[in-house]
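Good morning C.,

I know you're traveling, so I'll keep this short. The sequence:
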Amino acid sequence: MMRKLRGAAVLALGLGTVLLATGCSAGGGGSSSDGKVTMTMWQNSTTGPGQAFWKKTVADFEKTHKNITIKVQSIQNEDLDGKLQTALNSGSAPDIFLQRGGGKMKAMVDAGQVLALDDLVSSETKSAVGKGAFSAEQIDGKTYAMPVDVLPEGIYYSKDLFAQAGITDTPKTIDELNEAVDKLKAAGIAPIAVGAKDAWPAAHWFYNFALRACSEKTLNEAAASLKFDDPCWTKAGEDVAALNKTDPFNPGFLTTSAQQGAGSSAGLIANHKAAMELMGAWDPGVIASLTPDKKPLPDLGWFPFPTVAGGKGDPAAIMGGVDGYSCSAKAPKEACGEFLNYIVTQPVQEEYYKAFNAPPVNTAAQAIVTESYLKSVIAAYNDAPYVSQYLDTNYGQNVGNALNTGVVDLLAGKGNASDILTGVKDAAAKG
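The tokens, ready to paste straight into the viewer:
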């Protein structure tokens, strides 16, 4: 779901924006002799308000752009990366597609598969977004994807279940998190939901422990070199193993999905079957879609990933992704630009917020945010000294997949911290 290590200056949440690229490619789009353009779009909202948002947004755009038709296809999030890579490599990519960024995007750029977007952005869009957000989707100074949202990560929790277990404050340290786990278990409540069947949700525990264990310099150097020799990487794996020994996760977590149905990790939070979930800022919207009344969870709260003793990372640093959208390299630039600048407008961004229950990225649209947990997310993100892209995205698909698999194997008792790094190094050596 998921982004690139920022650097010392954090991107303010208001600097993000929705910018979607359109174009034609072997994926089904094309231009006719009368100037009409048909384009394909892949996005990852398969049900509920998110899917409805994209359908309505495209339909509204088409009403005022009679020569442009956009065919929207919903792809399940966990299937998207693999299908997209296959389509890109076969020359049949969709014209518009969800972009994870980081090393995954760099591979597309190196292969000439995506369109540079720098000359497509209007002055109004630049004013609404700002330069910082665009830098999140740039390689060598050129922009290849535009942010659809900014997704700071942390722990979402049920205030009601915390109160039921006698927890009066959110954990600030790992020791306090362990104490909360003990209290929840004593109250008969599953402490932490995790969808390890999909691998990446479990691996996010490693990502955040690495964020606390490793310095910003080490994280940046690993992104460039794909070398993981610093002892902090082993410490992160050992911290995951130590947490796992406390038996904090929901029963059957290894076969639990992340976002599909009431039995998923998000569904367990939505139905008060578990108390906490480590996830990005898309989670409230997913949880809302899985509550009995399909409305936002009234008692939902959020807190940053706890601090870890002995780490070299800044304790206020935060993990945070930037989902964007890219145009295939064959996309017609004029049509692409029209859609980009429409999507960033304030009314569309306000509808995005309502659909996804996530912070809008247009600065003017942010004024309508009312949820306390979203305000907490924004404050923590804006106050962070630096923000790390999700590691499976930042370090590319091969390394990312090996990392995610290694963490799940550790949780399943099939490996240890050293095995995670062995798998990652082998994947890096293969390119």
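Safe travels,
E.
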